[in-house]
């Protein structure tokens, strides 16, 4: 057969029928396995599909080529033993030993990439401290917060989320709230009750008043408003007491 020429559909069908129901001998299986382990074969397999993608027509052609009688497994069924293996039957010690022996001496085709990769590696204490210091920088926090605002957020619904929700879900709001908690020792300043995951940070000058006085209409304006993030304007309250306070006074949050 000449290089580059294609076999006719009839020839392909004859070869398929000739192999139907036949199994390779152990010697043939081993010979094929050794052929796949050759360095040039591993390299060719690794580079075969780099940057390539099948077209819709090709994918459909491949799908149709394995349907019905065209499938080499057509009309056959797995044995109960094989089904047990497929569904995850616990491996015996002997089975594990066989798997280990079979993989000995096989060098992964991407060994050089794995050598330089940090996959599975743990960071040193120095690197962890450096990362924490970087994450604590105000400009980094602001950038991270802005990267999840509006249509950049996976929960974006076309702009229906109120501005107040965006602000209260920002990292800057959490930073302000936690600073208030820490200063008050996580205790309700009105009742002296210690909090247990049920605290609120209450604005002395109402949040709505600050927004109105500073003409804040966008998220960016809110992030830049110093009065909005003044820790001295917040006090710690138990959530139930905070709700009751606003219910009794009628004051906005």
Which short descriptors sum up this protein?
253 residues, mainly alpha, two-stranded antiparallel ribbon, 2 strands, elongated
Number of helices: 14
Shape: elongated
> Which structural class do the helices and strands define?
mainly alpha
Largest sheet, in brief, is: 2 strands, antiparallel
Low-confidence stretches: none
- The tally of beta strands, per DSSP, is 2
Helical proportion, percent range: 40-55%
Straight-line distance between termini:
83 Å
String of helices and strands: HHHHHHHHHHHEHHEH
What is the averaged pLDDT score?
79
Note the beta-strand portion: under 5%
Secondary structure layout plus pairing:
Blueprint: H1 9-19, H2 26-36, H3 39-48, H4 56-64, H5 80-86, H6 93-103, H7 111-116, H8 125-135, H9 138-146, H10 163-168, H11 171-183, E1 199-203, H12 207-213, H13 219-224, E2 234-238, H14 239-249
Antiparallel strand pairs: 1-2
Molecular structure report:
- The chain is mainly alpha-helical and 253 residues long.
- It is built from 14 helices and 2 strands.
- The protein has a domain at 132-153 and 160-249.
- It has helices spanning 9-19, 26-36, 39-48, 56-64, 80-86, 93-103, 111-116, 125-135, 138-146, 163-168, 171-183, 207-213, 219-224, 239-249, and strands spanning 199-203, 234-238.
- The protein is elongated, with a radius of gyration of 33 Å.
- The N and C termini lie far apart (83 Å).
- The mean pLDDT is 79.
């Amino acid at each position: 057969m000449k290089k580059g020429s294609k076999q006719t559909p009839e020839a392909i069908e004859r070869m398929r029928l000739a192999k139907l129901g036949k199994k390779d001998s152990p010697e043939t299986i081993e010979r094929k396995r050794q052929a796949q382990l050759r360095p040039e074969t591993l390299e060719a397999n690794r580079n075969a599909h780099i940057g390539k993608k099948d077209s819709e027509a090709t994918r459909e052609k491949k799908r149709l080529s394995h349907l019905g009688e065209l499938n080499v497994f057509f009309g056959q069924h797995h044995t109960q033993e094989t089904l047990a293996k497929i569904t995850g039957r616990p491996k015996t010690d002997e089975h594990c030993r066989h798997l280990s022996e079979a993989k000995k001496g096989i060098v992964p085709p991407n060994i050089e990439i794995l050598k330089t990769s940090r996959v599975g590696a743990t960071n040193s204490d120095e690197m962890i401290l450096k990362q924490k210091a970087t994450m604590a920088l105000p400009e980094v926090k602001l950038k991270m917060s802005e990267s999840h605002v509006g249509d950049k957020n996976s929960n974006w619904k076309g702009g229906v989320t109120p501005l107040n929700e965006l602000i209260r879900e920002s990292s800057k709001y959490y930073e302000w709230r936690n600073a208030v908690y820490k200063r008050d020792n996580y205790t309700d300043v009105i009742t002296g009750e210690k909090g247990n995951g049920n605290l609120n940070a209450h604005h002395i000058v109402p949040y709505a008043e600050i927004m109105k006085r500073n003409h804040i209409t966008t998220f960016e304006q809110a992030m830049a408003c110093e009065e909005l993030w003044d820790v001295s304007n917040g006090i710690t309250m138990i959530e139930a007491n905070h709700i009751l306070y606003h219910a009794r006074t009628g004051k906005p949050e």
